[in-house]
Amino acid sequence: MFGKKFVFSILSLFVFIILFVSVSYSYFVYNKEVANIDLKSGDISIDFTNENNNSSTVSSQVMGDSIGKTNPNYLEFTVTGTADTESILYELEIVPNSGNSIDSKYIKYYLTEVDNNNETPLTPPLLYTELFDSMVNNGKGIYQNIVSGNLDGTSKTTIKKYRLRAWIDESYSENSGGNFGYGVYLYAINADSSKYIKVSFNLDDGRGAGLSKYVEKNKEYGSLPKPVNQDRVFLGWKINDNDENYIVESTIVSETTNHTLKAKWVLTTSEYFLENISNQTTCTTTAPNKSSFYGEIDADVIYYTGNDESCLKNYIWYSGKLWRIVAIYPNGMIKLVTENPMTSIYYGSSATFDGSWMDQWLSEEFLPTLYNNENIVVQNGEWNVTETNVYTDPYLLTGSTTITKTVGLLNAFEYVKSGTSSGYLNIGQYWWLIAPYASDNVHYVIYNGNPGSDFFYSEAGSVRPSIYLKSGVVFDVENYDGTRLSPFHIVGDKEEGKTNELLNTRISGEYVKFNNELYRIVGIENNTTKIVNTNYISNPNSSNTSDTTLGNFGSDVYFNTSSTDTSYWDKYLTDANGWLETISASNKNLLVNGTYYLGPYPSSTNYKATICKNTASELETTTISNCMKYESSDTNKTYTGLVGLLRVGEMMSAHQSILTHVNDANHYKSMWLITPYNSSDVRVVYNYGNRSNATPSSSAFSVRPTLHLKSGTKITGGSGFINDPYVIG
Fold this sequence. Notes:
By secondary structure, the chain is mainly beta. β42 (671-676) and β43 form a beta hairpin.
């Protein structure tokens, strides 16, 4: 039979009409087709027992899997193969018609083997998108098998009967009607069965039998199934759960016998938390500090409330920032807010959020620090900016005002639902909320945890940005438990830095160990990494002998220009015999001069004024990156040196995280910034979080120094988290 060409494949399509909510969906057929192949060691054929019934129609509905698997409407066919000296590897392929009006992604298929009218599942119900590209024909193979000859070299005939069911999946919601047709092909090649092994695929999601395919030993696995599950996200295939790496298409087959690959899944974020509601409700109590989920008025939105850290596991680590989950929405979106303030600025020139200084800072300064945000953060999130009181859900008001933004702030109602002063969102700081309280006031949170309001232009409160995570976002819940020191990580975020990776490729907010102290990355400037000390340093020359972390700023409002006394911060920090001497020689070699902007920040001013010399009106329409920045030639408007302080509007220029959650302003110290207020005062962040000003030579506050690390600084260890900071060299 060598060299003989056999007809081995025939296309069969069958017709039936699907009825759903009085809309007609029809499966129909095209004409039969024939394909050929050279088989040199045997022959193989496919026979469709109902091929003469292609014009018949039956009625059905859009189905769930349990109904579809037992549907009496199926395509039954028989494959007959005769193998001689070599085996025959054959494959069944499904090909949708080109004229279908119903998308293939909504069609499910289910294949069984029939023996004396008893059916054995060969696949679970599978969407077309889950069928793998086969090694035989680069099509969409649903099943593979081998027909082997006898051991003595004589021919052997194998007969297999199959049933294939197809239906429209429940995820299809169109009511306009449509049609769908498909064909079944048989493909075959000569194969040395001793070189092939069978790989089965365990979907591990409750759907029963999985797919299988044959792979050649010591060759690549080739295309692999891509399973779909609406409640989970597929991570990949592994042979053993504890394997470090996934099996991918290019992986070389090292196994020598038949084996199974197991699908690894992770629940979508919303599904994980909804499944764990029972774990949260066990913590519920009447005590105000206990934590639980809180069902909103119509039970559509689920809020977190309380502050019991042992129970309330809603910490998220994303892009170098620690976040808290605030609410879970029916569509699967999750609302977050940063645990700590990121900066402290005036709200705007009016009580309107859209286009305000706050809006500009969030979209122009903060959003770019969120890694891969296009795929993780809802880009057109809805923010309610209706003027209302704190106890009214603005989304339930008739005629409420909403805007779409990627980053916003919490509204007052959301803060109240957290438990206010007894809730997890109370951090002992002043911080802004998003909506007006009145035409000349904006809601904010007072340092004691109570909701309040203030003038948008005369009080500079802290900023805790808020975002919506997309419904399909996945948390790593296997390695992290959602507590403060083990917050959930987002799959797809910029994972921990690797050894020998440049530090200037990392994210603002990540932690760095420098000179045996804890620092945070502020940002990347001219390829240098700007970092800030997370603690308040001590000045041994301070006149405040009872507390040497307190000191005067300097002789004038400009950093490192006039002071000669090292009891002043600007002199002590920059003097060769001052604070710089506390840094070891090896660490000092990592430092490089940085440029510090000294633009003033008077009352009712856009934060951009601290770095841009544009007019007030120009600041409303330009970004910092495009503004006319102060230069060294501008008197007292820039400073270049090894050490400085944070400026107004800069990332991390507010009180930052410590190892435990706190809700008391006494855990913080009032601290100097490098930004002048006017010709006589310098800006200060008070310990309770709002921005103010003080006389540089007579007022005493703390400082957190900033440094610039050379562009070649590399990571030598650590993960960048607060309890495992990067080690650098």
